[in-house]
């Protein structure tokens, strides 16, 4: 199905029609063509610039200040020894981890909102974050595991939760409201499991797990950076590959089938990949709330698109989390807040506004 429409013009030749605000680009000979929305391109470039600017500021500020003019040299390993140490060894991996986790949560949130066709269909609302967090907490408290096993526990917990929610929500296909309601119920059950594990754990282990449950990027190094970016490199292409089919599914399963989309296989692939991506992000940073909820909606509103915006959600998630982490580092300096506290305040305010606008629009 072509993205452009043709009709005979008065001159007898075909006239190309493209969606409003979209431009068609075609190579010589017409072998390569695609549609591009200038507004989407401008917003994407702006988000990239904002993320990079925040990254530079993040590696420069702190108890040990580094002049912005010295940051490029320190990034390349030149300049003062302390500059290089703090930039390359402490602050850069933390900032890159924030960008990777934010992008992963943004993509996962866009997938869940697309599958549920609901603005509240994000992993932290419908239980997938709780599943990954429960798997990680079980690895911490029961197995006394290190970071590798905790990461595997988070991914496994997210995938198991995704499978349970999908099976319970499936009845003549997966309806969005059932997915959300089942996910909320599973999330409440998993929260009780985590609370029980906390009561049975040693005090020091319980305190460590509780700090992890808030969501934090403090002390994150290159191993965490590598873990989340490997997850993105492996799983994001899988999600992007089914991105067009997700847009068709937003029109309804019957319409999607009429367009040749295998609804069930698309749902399973997207759900599994997004759940694993959520688990990878949570394994690194803990259950950081509201980024997956807000990033896809903010990207959609800024670009004024009506469907899934995977790239926009990834860029928005990265920008939101790296900004939130900068606030967490410097708001009460020298005390560093967990970034989950900042995202909870911002995200909670956004959720209230979102519910209000949905109510005003008669959709809630």
Number of helices: 14
Q: What is the arithmetic mean of pLDDT?
A: 82
Low-confidence stretches: 1-17
User: How many β-strands, per DSSP?
Assistant: 4
Distance between the termini: 34 Å
Q: Element order, helices and strands? A: EEEEHHHHHHHHHHHHHH
Structural class: mainly alpha
Could you describe the 3D structure shown?
It is a single chain. The protein has 364 residues and is mainly alpha-helical. Helices cover 69% and strands 4% of the residues. The protein contains 14 helices and four strands. The strands form two sheets. The chain has a two-stranded antiparallel ribbon with strand order 1-2. A hairpin with a 6-residue loop joins strand 3 and strand 4. Helix 4 crosses helix 11. It is globular and about 65 Å long.
Fill in the keyword field for this structure.
364 residues, mainly alpha, two-stranded antiparallel sheet, 14 helices
Question: Could you outline the blueprint of secondary structure elements for this entry?
Answer:
Layout: E1 5-8, E2 14-17, E3 23-26, E4 33-36, H1 38-60, H2 71-75, H3 81-116, H4 128-141, H5 147-169, H6 176-200, H7 203-214, H8 222-241, H9 243-249, H10 253-258, H11 263-285, H12 291-303, H13 310-330, H14 339-360
Antiparallel strand pairs: 1-2, 3-4
